Amino acid sequence: MNMSVKFPLNSKSNYLTPEQVEEFGRRVEEIRREVMDNLGEADAKYIYKIRNFVRYSEIASRGMLMFSGWIPPVWLVGTGLLGISKIVENMELGHNVMHGQFDWLNDPSLNGANYDWDTIATGDDWKHTHNYVHHTYTNIVGKDHDVGYGLLRVSEQQKWEPRFLLNVPMAMQLMVFFEWYVGAQNLHLEDAIVYKTKSWKEVWKDSAKLRKKVVRQVGKDYVFFPLIAGPNAIPVFLGNAVANVIRSLWSSAVIFNGHFTEDAETFEEDNTETETRAQWYLRQIRGSSNFSGTQGLHILSGNLSHQIEHHLFPDMPANRYSEVAPKIRALCEEYGVNYNEANFMKQFWSVWVRLAKCSLPNGYSDQVSNTIQKVKNLFSFAK
Questions:
Q1: d(CA 198, CA 211)
Q2: Which long-range contacts link 304-309 to residues 24+ away (Cβ below 8 Å)?
Q3: pLDDT tens across 302-344, in order?
Q4: What residues have CB less than 8 Å from 80, skipping those under 6 apart?
Q5: How many Cβ atoms from other residues are within 10 Å of residue 25's Cβ?
Q6: What is the pTM of this model?
Q7: 268 in helix, strand or coil?
């Protein structure tokens, strides 16, 4: 049995025979079934608690901005709380609910097919680009658009272009405007701007749902709430804008840490149609990275701090990832598969190292690595 996806040769993971891959996959599936067969009241209470936090934190933060936003300390607290509310709604509530993690509750408000989150991206677009494309073809160059978002070069398997010299500054502005880039991701704007394989007429046609969502989101945060705030319109407008940027910065950092670290592998497509479930499991682990932290950090990340487990089990309630992570880690150790995990800052540093290396044509990475190593020695968190 041949592998359906070409795995990198320069990997920290051991080579597994086809028989070992299938046995490995069977044991991963056993871990999944053990949890999925025992979902119940505790999981329901958890997601309802998260939803209540999102609702009440938004009410409290918007109230502070609307009635006392002109007082600097209140504005700071209100803006910060609204940013956190938006983060939790997107990461721990919206993202996970739209994966169908809580469809078994039979609660229409928590049904993945119906839910639409508080961000620019439409639910339908997200479920196509993320749930289907990304989770099916995870980190396969040319298939998974999340490999650089059409904007960055994050793999040596991507063809180098002069625009990638701006890899690092482009990644910085991607983080600031992440909400908007994710919203427009399904349009593949690089095809119209860079490669000229798509007309702007096609872009306009394809963006119909997105344009409606933009009107709704912009109208809510930058027109409706400032208007009803009366004399506090400016503090409310600025608070909403800053909260959205806070959400973009944090969510992009979480996504970067889960996919673009130096040890997160990318793959060349061979024949994914014949890829077995076990091979898919192995690809998910080798193409992902986790970061450690407190329970609060896990919640703020939507439990995508356990990105390996999320890629393995996208339909498993995310609050269970911390339970299965030690079992997956032990299984990886047994089979010699690299389990990529480190603290948040170490992984985040690794992302920028990878972006710097990929900004230059293949063959220059050694020179970049030597320079980065000298800088790295100055910062203890990166070691």
A1: 18
A2: 304/91, 304/95, 304/254, 304/255, 304/258, 305/254, 305/257, 305/344, 307/257, 307/258, 307/259, 308/284, 308/339, 308/340, 308/341
A3: 999 999 999 999 999 999 999 999 999 999 999 999 999 999 9
A4: 243, 246
A5: 17
A6: 0.92
A7: strand
